[in-house]
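#struct-help
A.M.: can someone run this one for me? Single chain, 85 residues.
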Amino acid sequence: MSRDPKRLQWGLPDSPPPKHPYRDSVIVYAAFAIVIVVIAWATGGAVAKAALIAFIFFAIASAWNVYRWRSRLREEAERTRRGGA
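D.P.: on it. Structure tokens below:
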């Protein structure tokens, strides 16, 4: 038996953030919002209602992502200030 069992890690890997984390995230969420509206249109659903839902999804997801990126960047800055990894 091994003394160091492998554990699942659910967090982000310790890699440098992308060059434009906010912009990249907003683009992905905008694409998801468009998919919501297109699916509603393709299936004959209420496009106006789908557009409202897509906008709400986009706004909440983008705000959450900005919050998470700021937290992560702040933590990395604090770690760097303390002297490394």
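A.M.: thanks! Residues 76 and 82 are 10 Å apart (CA to CA).
D.P.: also worth noting: The first helix runs from residue 21 to 42.
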